[in-house]
Design brief:
about 15% strand; alpha/beta
Length: about 280
């Protein structure tokens, strides 16, 4: 059991919530940062033992108060909700506040391929934040997932349109995709905080399985007995109502192979779920 304090930004979201839950399960003290401490997700974390505090990632003074006495900080921002400029500003503010607070270890929840020249805003902006983290000098580790398995199931991602329809059309049905489950990212983050001497300075691409959309569709059929529901939508309409950046991402992936080893992820978390295992757990609930 580790009684040091970790401040978790975005603690009521998917990623921050998974990190907070795994830290709490490991005996860490967790300070969950949120804009709305009265929300159901915030109260659920409080029920697990987290200290829930109101904080604004765009306000360094607010963050300084939230980081007081913290050994570590988990930093993740939501550019889809607030815009990419706001994501960069928030990521920089978290790094500034962590450095000023004397935090020993900042773990940054990034994404993408580790390059800042892809033209995919939601990837490139994270490289800007990483450069700022390096500049301010706070000890850090980057965790870099590419595609969460929840894209195939979470209603908020509207998978019938996105992952099962537009994504394979723009990227290709047989193009390998690097997958990891959000819960497994949470377990990995907790492990990284527990062993900073092994991971400070690392940028770790997270991959639990590599499967094409065609393979994922067949696995879904095998596990559930039916194909995942699809809702075809023209690309121009998807870009207008959902995300131009996702369309750019999928086009970029069509033309740019990514060869990512599972070994670093499995060394940190040997039980990270494959796509099949994740689907079996999902449909057993």
């Amino acid at each position: 059991m580790d009684e040091r304090l970790i401040a978790v930004t975005g603690a009521t979201g998917r990623q921050g919530g998974a990190v907070a839950r795994h830290l709490l399960a490991g005996g860490w003290r967790v300070r969950a940062l949120t804009r709305d401490p009265a929300s159901r997700a915030a109260q659920a974390l409080a029920g697990r033992g987290a200290e829930v505090v109101r904080a604004d990632m765009g306000d360094v003074d607010s963050l300084l108060s939230a980081f007081a006495g913290a050994h570590g900080v988990y930093s993740v921002q939501n550019g889809v909700e607030y815009g990419m400029d706001a994501e960069v500003a928030q990521g920089k503010a978290v790094a500034d506040a962590a450095a000023k607070s004397g935090v020993d270890h900042l773990v940054y929840g990034s994404a993408g391929v580790g390059r800042g020249d892809t033209g995919v805003e939601s990837w490139d902006c994270k490289e800007v934040v990483k450069a700022h983290i390096e500049k301010v000098g706070v000890p850090f580790t980057v965790l870099r997932p590419m595609a969460f398995m929840e894209l195939m199931s979470d209603k908020r991602f509207f998978p019938p349109v996105a992952v099962w329809s537009v994504m394979p059309r723009l990227m290709g049905e047989d193009r390998p995709v690097v997958w990891i489950g959000v819960d497994d990212l949470g377990a990995i983050a907790a492990r990284v905080f527990a062993t900073p001497e092994l991971h400070i300075g690392e940028d770790i691409a997270l991959v639990a399985d590599v499967r094409s959309i065609r393979e994922c569709r067949e696995l879904w059929r095998e596990v559930t007995g039916s194909a995942p529901r699809r809702f075809p939508m023209p690309t121009w309409l998807f870009e207008r109502v959902a995300s131009r950046d996702l369309a750019r991402m999928w086009r970029w992936l069509r033309e740019n192979p990514t060869d990512v080893s599972r070994a670093p992820t499995l060394a940190l978390h040997p039980t990270a779920r494959t796509v099949r295992q994740w689907m079996e757990e999902l449909h057993a609930r």
